[in-house]
Amino acid sequence: MVEKAVAFAIKSHEGTFRKGTKIPYIVHPLETAVIVALMVTDEEMICAALLHDVVEDTGVTEAELKEEFGSRVAELVMEETEDKTKCWKERKSATLEHLEQASRESKILVLADKLSNLRATARDYYLMGDDLWQRFNEKNKSEHAWYYKGVAKRLTGLEEFPAYQEYVKLCEKVFE
């Protein structure tokens, strides 16, 4: 099932790149899946990590995911999917609110996704400095700090994972 999810994600994200870079977008879902695989052995969780952005960023529907990968994978992906009709602040506030009562599985997916994003942000921040924030829809560094630190506070129960510890350290380095 994981190989099928890899192929599905590659096809879905074909021709897209990470914001402001020439890095193929698929690198992010693959890294997210590796981070999840270091925390759990659950294949459906790993598949959800691989597919976490397909509904949000491509033409794939929840129904297609359910048909291809089953209800649980589709539900996990949908928990992680932002409503792109809303502005940045509304989307991020909704994620933080969701994390208040999210399942451990959902928190693991969020941690992996946000750690992958924060690794890329930290790397580029060291190279570009504050010019980095211009590539994002939200250009205010303090808003990104609010969001990433808010995620860290809400990932209760995951503190024992090295991924969580790395996430917190990167937050400190990038935002303080």
Automatic annotation (TrEMBL):
Q: Which GO terms describe its molecular function?
A: guanosine-3',5'-bis(diphosphate) 3'-diphosphatase activity
Q: Name one Pfam family in it.
A: HD_4
Ranges of residues in domain HD: 25-118
Protein name as catalogued: Metal dependent phosphohydrolase
